[in-house]
């Protein structure tokens, strides 16, 4: 776990690693999904789970995507629909119900769920009654375990204290507030103006209502940001003191995400400035008592994420770092990604196509992947590096019956350069990421990614700094 890095990071090292690469919320990454993976393949994976031991031993994680937003944030790369017409949520709920029914048809009623996350878009675009309807639908079909993690993403501009009462009543125990930056100039530049006082009041109200954990999302590398301006935001965050903080690097991919074309590349901070923001933010958060969880997550020491980190139980899934076991995840809604067994799947990305599949009584799965043995081995390696910052060769050898040094001979040779740069320590028994190496942990993981063979492939991803 990184605590500090007294050694300065050189400009040459920054330039060398100012490249594109995956965030590794999965391996293989979603760009490797293929259309040859069909709804029938997904059904087979569900039925294998139903008949296998996993359903008895490992609970499910559920992700529900609510795509609607009232206004456009220029930085956003999420699948969203900008609309003022709230009646569209009612039709969407109806189709979510059809998708849930298809799952229970092939998995059976009452599958145990220990983690639920509502994302978007803005889930709080839905009215309180619509959220009640959604949760009632899920509870009729799945069994939610007491003490599970049940979270929802919140746009602070769409709720007040009374709506927090509804969320508590519905069983949500974790809230995630989208803040990004408190600086008014930055907020104006990205078309997301929300006063800091509003967020402070909502977080205080959430604590009064007994929510177990409050997360705040921040983004560095946005237009109008400087290391000094972001220092001010971090000082306010330390005063706010949320239980968890997700600190993301802005991924500028205007060729893929149309809203980002409203942001000029020349307005974006340099890689050197972004590294400075990250380094200074990490120092500020750790001085305030936060534990560094992984490449973009921090938590207070008593938060379950920090506890999982200490106990070696940290995992990573499509929502980022998680305390949940390496369990199956069912994705519901337009564009949602799921993992069942050794498969990944993704739903249709447009409402029209999503609705059309369900009108025909079919899962809206349009692509996915059945993982090979090599995929499984490499996933274990990458996730160990991303989650724990260390890798035991013996653990991989026992789990996958390979000779690590022989299987990854080429990769170990490539890693020598990162050893010389002080990013990792390569020992007889394994690999350890150094404090300086945590800034570049994605680059360390990329060495083991078999699919990253050409610059054209890498260009699909965000910059790793």
Structural summary, described in words:
The protein is of the alpha/beta class and 465 residues long. It folds into two domains: 1-28 and 373-465, Orthogonal Bundle (Arc Repressor Mutant, subunit A), CATH 1.10.10.920; 30-332, Aldolase class I (TIM Barrel, Alpha-Beta Barrel). It contains 18 helices and 19 strands. The chain has helices spanning 11-16, 39-51, 54-57, 88-107, 128-141, 161-169, 184-189, 196-208, 227-240, 271-287, 304-310, 351-359, 373-388, 393-400, 404-407, 409-420, 441-446, 455-458, and strands spanning 60-66, 68-69, 81-82, 111-120, 142-154, 174-180, 213-220, 244-249, 291-292, 297-299, 315-317, 320-322, 329-332, 337-340, 343-347, 365-370, 390-392, 424-426, 430-433. The chain is globular. The two termini are 19 Å apart.
Short key terms for the protein model shown above:
Arc Repressor Mutant, subunit A; nine-stranded mixed β-sheet; TIM Barrel; globular; three-stranded antiparallel β-sheet; 465 residues; alpha/beta; 2 domains; 39% helix
Question: How do you describe this structure in short?
Answer:
This protein is of the alpha/beta class and 465 residues long. The protein has 18 helices and 19 strands.
């Amino acid at each position: 776990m990184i605590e500090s890095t007294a050694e300065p990071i050189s400009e040459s090292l920054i330039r060398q690693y100012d490249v594109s690469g995956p965030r590794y919320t999965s391996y293989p990454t979603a760009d490797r999904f293929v259309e040859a993976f069909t709804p029938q393949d997904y059904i087979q994976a569900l039925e294998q789970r139903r008949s296998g031991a996993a359903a008895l031993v490992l609970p499910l994680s559920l992700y529900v995507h609510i795509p609607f937003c009232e206004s456009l944030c220029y930085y956003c790369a999420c699948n969203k629909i900008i609309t003022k017409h709230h009646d569209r949520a009612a039709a969407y709920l109806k189709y979510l119900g059809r998708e849930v029914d298809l799952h229970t048809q092939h998995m059976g009623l009452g599958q145990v769920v220990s983690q639920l996350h509502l994302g978007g878009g803005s889930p709080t675009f839905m009215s309180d009654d619509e959220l009640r309807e959604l949760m009632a639908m899920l509870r009729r079909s799945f069994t939610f375990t007491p003490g599970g993690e049940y979270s929802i993403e919140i746009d602070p501009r769409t709720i007040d204290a009374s709506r927090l009462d509804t969320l508590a009543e519905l069983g949500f125990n974790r809230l995630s507030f989208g803040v990004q930056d408190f600086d008014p100039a930055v907020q104006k530049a990205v078309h997301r103006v929300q006063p800091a006082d509003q967020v402070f009041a909502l977080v205080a109200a959430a604590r009064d209502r007994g929510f177990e954990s409050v997360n705040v999302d921040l983004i560095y590398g946005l237009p109008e940001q400087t290391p000094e301006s972001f220092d001010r935001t971090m000082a306010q965050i330390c005063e706010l003191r949320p239980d968890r903080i997700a600190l993301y690097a802005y991924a500028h991919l205007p060729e893929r995400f149309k809203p980002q074309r409203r942001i000029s590349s020349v307005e974006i901070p340099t890689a050197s400035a972004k590294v400075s923001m990250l380094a200074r933010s990490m120092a500020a958060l750790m001085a305030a008592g936060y534990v560094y969880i992984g490449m973009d997550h921090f938590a207070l020491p008593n938060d379950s994420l920090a506890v999982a980190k200490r106990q070696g139980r940290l995992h990573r899934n499509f929502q980022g770092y998680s305390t949940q076991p390496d369990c199956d995840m069912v994705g519901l809604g337009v564009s949602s990604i799921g993992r069942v067994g050794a498969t990944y799947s993704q739903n249709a990305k447009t409402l029209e196509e999503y609705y059309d599949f369900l009108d025909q009584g079919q899962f809206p799965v349009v692509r996915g992947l059945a993982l090979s043995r090599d995929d499984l081995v490499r996933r274990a390696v990458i996730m160990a590096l991303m989650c724990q910052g260390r890798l035991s060769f013996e653990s991989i050898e026992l789990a996958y019956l390979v000779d690590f040094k022989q299987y990854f001979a080429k990769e170990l040779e490539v890693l020598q350069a990162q050893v010389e740069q002080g990013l990792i320590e390569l020992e007889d028994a394994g690999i350890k990421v150094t404090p300086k190496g945590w800034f570049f942990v994605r680059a360390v993981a990329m060495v083991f990614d078999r699919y990253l063979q050409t610059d054209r492939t890498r260009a699909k991803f965000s910059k790793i700094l």
